[in-house]
Write a structure and sequence with these properties.
CATH superfamily of the largest domain: Bira Bifunctional Protein, Domain 2
Bound molecules: adenosine-5'-triphosphate, magnesium ion
Structural class: alpha+beta
Number of domains: 2
Low-confidence stretches: 426-430
Distance between the termini: 46 Å
Helix content: 40-55%
């Protein structure tokens, strides 16, 4: 019988890598909490219609990437391909808008898209996202961007660029779309096949084609920025001046349109020079009509989502973490010694030490080998003699020095040695 393997485009995150995830999650939660964002958790699957209506039927995500199936009650269900739609549904359904104030929410979890798997692109991947609902102010756009850059800075990431654009309001986009189609139509047969297809369905998406000839043709295309109405233009300038006030560098990229239909005005991406083809770590933008389109009151909003797999690829390259270690490794043999070892381990854990107890029951020699590999600062040893005399042998791994300590004195003794422990703890857990 063949082995059952993980599905293509999914992967196991093993313990050594989970440490990077925990670091990202802890730092992001701390930065977001300090900025008064609160976490929301919504279901991983929703009615298919939610995504069709919000993301848009003509998008790649809805058109060809969704995991959609019939459940046993014959309902069409979709594994969420992104987080905003579910958050907005909850915002409406749970009456968060009725609370009057502006909602500052964040979420984290798995998303699902049927894509061609490659480095930084999976079928199950994870996003951390932020939404500010209830204000159209340019300040909110910059607040959202600032909290994103804060997270990246706290993680110590560099070589990142913020690409910024405004795609105006619906009317601006309609006029631009017409101008773009008029410009591209004579070149129709020279465009890549995807772009030819998009010319009728979703022409703005042609702007982010990776095809060299299409890119060449686009060089002469009209610019979205020339189609902004005066108000949208002022708004975009306000966003830029606030970013400058905060010393957040940005590049204006008139080709940036983003893949989901619900965006308007500010759109942005944060890209890394260290990621190759899948360079975008964060994508986001303003979505002023989505809440109303999903049946809620008119509620302007802005949000972004960060691809955690790509972020972790960067962290692994730039700041490899040393392997996990423990403070103490406990080795014991014999009925009484083992019982005392368990008790001592528990006491030390309650005091905040990290303690691995050898649970193998094997000979001392094998246990010592594992102690060596554990990276522990000290090995605590209990055999028959120690059990009888109520002592424990403490062996400091770096020097090989060993001392017999009364069990009742152990914690006081270990606390005295704190400086040595602290040094290794901060090096490892930084
Ligand atoms: P791309 O152009 O790379 O397909 P996108 O525009 O589809 O990105 P968004 O929907 O804006 O992506 O999602 C925000 C972020 O989530 C992306 O910038 C990326 O970091 C991450 N992301 C999107 N799709 C995937 C995927 N299939 N695998 C891993 N990360 C992803
Ligand atoms: Mg995509």
């Amino acid at each position: 019988m063949g082995l059952i393997e993980a599905l293509r485009g999914t992967r196991d995150i093993l313990p050594d890598e989970v440490r990077y995830w925990q670091r990202v999650e802890a730092i992001a939660a701390a930065v977001l909490t300090r900025a008064a964002f609160t976490e929301i958790r919504t279901p991983i699957f929703e009615q298919t219609g939610l995504f069709e209506r919000s993301i848009g039927e003509a998008t790649d995500v809805v058109g060809k990437e969704m995991y959609t199936f019939k459940d046993r009650g014959d309902r069409s269900v979709t594994l969420r391909p992104e987080g905003t739609a579910g958050v907005v549904r909850a915002y409406i359904e749970q009456g968060l808008h009725a609370q009057g104030s502006i909602q500052r929410l964040w979420y984290l979890g798995p998303m699902f898209r049927y894509e061609r798997p490659q480095a930084g692109r999976q079928r199950q991947f994870h996003q951390l996202g932020v939404e500010i609902l209830g204000t159209a102010a340019a300040r909110a756009d910059v607040e959202a961007i600032a909290v994103a850059t804060d997270i990246l800075r706290q993680l110590g990431l560099q070589n990142l660029t913020l690409q910024l654009n405004s795609i105006g309001d619906k009317g601006d986009r309609q006029k631009y779309r017409e101008a773009l189609v008029a410009y591209l139509t004579p070149y129709r047969l020279e465009l890549d096949p995807d772009s030819q297809d998009r010319l009728a369905r979703n022409p703005l998406r042609i702007l982010d084609s990776k095809d060299a000839r299409t890119q060449e043709i686009l060089k002469g295309a009209p610019s979205m920025l020339d189609f902004l109405n005066p108000e949208a233009q002022v708004r975009f300038e306000r966003v830029q001046s606030l970013l400058t006030d905060l010393a957040i560098p940005y590049q204006i990229n008139p080709l940036l349109v983003r893949g989901l239909d619900y965006y308007s005005h500010t759109v942005f991406e944060i890209q890394s020079a260290d990621l190759g083809a899948q360079a975008t770590v964060i994508g986001g933008g303003r979505y002023d009509h989505l809440v109303a389109e999903l049946g809620g009151p008119e509620t302007p909003a802005i949000g972004w989502a960060m691809g955690l797999e790509r972020l972790i690829l960067l962290l692994k390259q730039l700041q490899p973490l040393p392997p996990a270690t423990v403070d103490f490794y406990v080795v014991s043999r014999g009925e009484f010694a083992e019982a005392q070892a368990m008790l001592l381990s528990q006491q030390l854990r309650q005091q905040g030490f990290t303690v691995e107890m050898d649970v193998s029951g094997s000979a001392f020699g094998k246990q010592f080998k594992r102690a060596d590999r554990s990276g522990a600062v000290a090995c605590l040893i209990l055999g028959d003699t120690e059990a009888e005399t109520r002592t424990v042998q403490v062996k400091w791994m770096a020097t090989g020095e060993q001392a017999a300590i009364a069990q009742s004195e152990l914690s006081a003794y270990l606390h005295q040695q704190q400086p040595a422990l602290k040094a290794t703890q901060t090096a490892d857990k930084g």
